[in-house]
Design a protein that fits this description.
Chain lengths: ~325, ~220
């Protein structure tokens, strides 16, 4: 659906050359929700804006649905952009138009003149985002969440195959964020829409995305399935982003160990194994005891996962046996310290 | 001074002349100033038609017309006015210099008003696949409408006071009366009446303008 090849973007600011994006490549499949996470200044915004060429890349290709956008002349871009919806952090609604007029705007841009058809499509979209009662309200009368719903309805008006979300929930409170994420997941399911979103919030990635790329200084430093990246972060930036999301870093664990001769283990369970009593089985078979220091059980999108931080208490041979068992049972474990 | 000396028919005529002069000038000012202001905005930095050279030239011309004192502009414009409408005096003769002074003024106000429109809105339009013409007519101008009306009100008030000055070179209107009767013949009462009428006219314009702005404000 979307293929990004060796994308780079450099600016010249005075005499300095700033590299905003550095050799970025990724693919997003049809119907997939792909998240890009990074700190502010990492280049997220520039990256998502190059996907519909609001920002022209200095190098590389943007191919959407088989069309190489970067090869198109400027005057042909508008028609293609009508097939790519976009929602914004600050909604960017037309203040001078009602909710219905805002949603009808892209339809008119696309050359639809039939008033009845526009009316019907607007009703359909209002229904989809749950704003039927606000048809004739002006945006200034709406709450942030409602404004974003209008933004989403507007982005979907021309039935695009792709939706780009530029920090769509960053200006919203947690509760409203949750409801907007739910709406996005819902339209992804109902319409088979491919979604590319950028965010600085790990929780957005966790609840919504199938795959994630971590952006730092204009480069993708890590990418993969959300569960893999979350449970086994490889890159320093990913770890620190996770730490802010409430998941501790390796450094933080060191302080937790109480006996210098014991080991600190992190055990990760994904899917059905989350519900197995693995620890007590290890204890009964080897005699090694565990002291649970920290534990999480949760869901990453639809996958249940559990992560336990344990300190071992026992003899060296018991420990070796236990580790062998864990490996045999295919339970992911890391020796932290 | 006897109140019966007050030349009411002339005052009435003067009021009408002022209204005609300012009214026609306002129409031409808006017709000329709005596109000029939009062009100024669009060719500015980071805008849709960014063009450094064009913007600089247009900007200098506008600044020139705005900085020449109006009374001098009236004189400079004489040949142009004759060429345009065949005379440089009377009400008709006052309109071209009034427009020449007010259109650049309005254009600059329009530029400022358009700059206030959230750039995110323009970006959203581009993302929706809007072409330039659609962005300008469908989004920029409607979004800026209250500001454009407020700027038009300021311009209308300026035109009323400029039109009084135009009276000085035979333009007619209330300003002309104030000078001829009030200043040259020491008829202070005529001067007071014309001034009161001008003040009232400006008040009416401002109130009407404010109402219009409020009517189109959606915030």
């Amino acid at each position: 659906m979307i293929r990004i090849e060796n994308l780079s973007k450099t600016y010249t600011a005075g005499r300095q050359t700033v590299t905003a994006l550095n050799d970025i490549s990724f693919e997003v499949g049809k119907g997939e929700i792909f998240g890009i996470i990074g700190r502010s200044g990492a280049g997220k915004s520039t990256l998502i804006r190059t996907l519909n060429l609001l920002e022209r890349p200095s190098q590389g290709k943007v191919v959407i649905d088989g069309n190489d956008l970067t090869a198109l002349p400027q005057r042909e871009l508008p028609v293609l952009r009508q097939r790519i919806g976009m929602v914004f952090q600050h909604f960017n609604l037309l203040q001078s138009k009602t909710v219905a007029q805002n949603i009808a705007f892209p339809l008119k841009l696309a050359g639809i003149r039939d008033k009845a058809a526009i009316h019907a499509r607007v009703d359909e979209l209002l229904d989809l985002v749950g704003l039927g009662a606000f048809r004739d309200s002006y945006p200034s009368r709406l709450s942030g969440g409602q404004k974003q719903r209008v933004g989403i309805a507007r982005a979907l008006a021309n039935k695009p195959g792709v939706l780009l979300s530029d920090e769509a929930t960053s200006a919203l409170d947690p509760e409203t964020t949750a409801s907007i994420l739910e709406l996005l997941a819902d339209i992804n399911q109902k319409l088979g829409l491919t979604i590319v979103l950028i965010t600085h919030e790990m929780s957005v990635i966790r609840t919504l995305c199938d795959r994630v790329a971590v952006l730092d200084h204009g480069r993708i430093v890590e990418s993969g399935n959300v569960a893999d990246v979350f449970l086994h972060p490889q890159h320093e930036v990913t770890r620190s982003l996770l730490a802010e999301g409430g998941i501790q870093t390796r450094e933080a664990y060191e302080a937790l160990r109480r006996h210098s001769e014991s080991l600190l283990l992190r055990l990760t369970f994904v899917g059905d194994e989350t519900y197995e009593p693995a620890l007590s089985r290890v204890t009964s078979e080897t005699g090694l005891h565990f002291n649970i220091l920290q534990g999480t059980i949760g869901r990453i999108k639809h996958t249940p996962y559990g992560q336990l931080l344990v300190e071992t208490a026992g003899q060296a041979h018991e420990l070796q046996q236990a580790l062998n068992l864990l490996t045999r049972w295919d339970i992911r474990h890391e020796v932290l310290v | 001074m006897n109140p019966s000396d007050i030349v009411w028919p002339e005052i009435w005529q003067g009021l009408q002349d002022t209204l005609v002069m300012s009214g026609f000038s306002l129409v031409f000012t808006l017709l000329l100033g709005l596109p000029l202001g939009v062009l100024l905005f669009l060719t500015g930095k980071q805008q849709l038609l960014q063009h450094k050279g064009f913007y600089a030239v247009l900007s200098v011309v506008i600044n020139f017309l705005r900085s020449v004192p109006f009374i001098i502009l009236l004189i400079i414009m004489m040949p142009v006015t004759v060429w345009l409408i065949g005379t440089s005096i009377g009400i008709a003769g006052a309109i071209p210099p009034l427009v020449a002074a007010a259109a650049p003024f309005y254009a600059r106000l329009v530029e400022n008003v358009l700059r206030e429109v959230d750039h995110g809105v323009v970006e959203a339009c581009q993302a929706m696949g809007a072409r330039r013409r659609q962005i300008i007519l469908g989004a920029l101008i409607p979004e800026a409408l209250p500001g454009l009306l407020a700027a038009a009100t300021v311009t209308a008030v300026a035109l009323v006071s400029y039109s009084a000055m135009a009276g000085a070179i035979g333009g007619g209107g209330l300003g002309d009366l104030a000078i001829r009767y009030g200043y040259q013949r020491f008829q202070a009462d005529v001067m007071v009446i014309t001034v009161v009428l001008m003040v009232a006219l400006v008040q009416v314009l401002q109130v009407a303008g404010d109402r219009l702005v409020l009517h189109f404000t959606r915030r």
